[in-house]
Design goal:
alpha/beta
Length: 349
């Protein structure tokens, strides 16, 4: 097998993209995004390609995110390389979102951050019992990018806000119940699913419908009404107050989790999702996230979050400001401010 970090080919009318960086849990870098983009652009007008399948090599997971170390190292300087990565990655996200042919993504294992960005735009999103989904960015001083500002606020009720702020990890029963993933297929039937897709390349939804099964009861269902009530506010302070006032064990556990996250990231993320909920297009959302990304990666909290979680792995970040009161409206306005037209993100033609 080729040592390429992404394998692309056409088989039986299916354009196949296989992530092939298993030692790094298929974390995305710029070259991987460019390879996927080039293949998708070639297949877009190729009449022999009837649908697209995205999967991964090995059994360790689908995709754990982006190349966080590179982004942090770039953010410690002028952030030029980080911005170049975001530009390419977000264009890939948008290309997938607007793609004219059906896309199937099989997220058999960990799917976080950048992995969500290349699977959530797919028409058919297959989870297995090994799937673990999360958008954990507030724990490293970032925010749920790669389209999180579009997808998360469009989940039922306030579940997307809860997921974004807490970084909660979900298994397939919950992700399918929320619509994050469209189907559940046991991992021992994934190869049969792929074979059926190759046999019926123009009918991926019918194939998925036929092979899907019930993932079982959704554990989150018991907390949905509480989430909708306690995470409906437009400030993080109000969410904290609602959790404290509720006082239940579950609410206090959420509050304890939130207090471990970057206060700056919590405020950025909540504003991002409230704005994203009203965006007119996915492209508008990605332009907003690009502005944010280029600035947030240069902040203390992102640098410190990556140090604590990825580099030193002591999981003891020293956030600055250390609490919500230290993050001002002026700070947020600066992060969300427009950029000059020549520095704006734009989709591929």
């Amino acid at each position: 097998m080729s040592e390429s970090e992404v394998l692309t080919r056409v088989e039986s009318g299916v354009g196949r993209i296989t992530l092939n960086r298993p030692k790094a849990l298929h974390a995305l870098n710029r070259a991987m995004c460019e390879t996927m983009t080039d293949a998708l652009l070639a297949w877009r007008t190729d009449d022999t390609v009837q649908s697209v399948l995205i999967d991964h090599a090995g059994e360790r997971g689908f995709c754990a995110g982006g190349d966080i170390r590179m982004i942090a190292e770039s953010g410690a300087g002028d952030a030029a390389e980080a911005k170049a990565f975001f530009k390419v990655e977000y264009r890939l996200n948008h290309l997938l979102f607007d793609y004219p042919k059906p896309i199937t993504a099989i997220v058999d294992g960990i799917v976080m951050g950048g992995g969500v960005g290349i699977s959530e735009p797919a028409d058919i999103r297959i989870a297995t019992e090994r799937t673990t989904y999360a958008m954990p960015e507030t724990g490293i001083g970032l925010f749920p990018d790669v389209g999180g500002g579009w997808f998360l606020p469009r989940l039922p009720g306030q579940t997307g806000v809860w997921l974004a702020l807490t970084g909660a990890r979900l298994k397939a029963a919950d992700t399918v119940a929320l619509g994050i993933h469209s189907h559940f297929v046991p991992s021992d039937r994934v190869e049969a699913l792929k074979a059926a897709l190759l046999a019926h390349p123009a009918e991926p939804k019918t194939v998925a419908d036929t092979l899907a099964s019930d993932p079982g009861p959704a554990p989150l269902a018991a907390h949905r009404a509480t989430i909708d009530r306690l995470f409906a506010f437009d400030t993080v302070e109000a969410i904290y107050a609602a959790l404290e006032a509720d006082g239940s064990d579950w609410a206090m556990a959420q509050l304890a989790t939130l207090k471990t996250k970057s206060p700056q990231s919590l405020k950025v993320t909540l504003r991002q999702l409230r704005l994203g909920a009203n965006m007119a297009s996915f492209a508008d959302n990605m332009a907003l996230e690009y502005r944010l990304g280029g600035r947030v990666v240069r902040t203390h909290d992102f640098q410190e979050g990556v140090r604590a979680v990825v580099v030193d792995k002591d999981n003891m970040p020293n956030w600055s400001p250390a609490d919500l009161s230290g993050v001002s409206e002026a700070d947020l306005e600066a992060l969300f401010a427009p950029v000059s037209p020549d520095h704006e993100w734009t989709p591929l033609d």
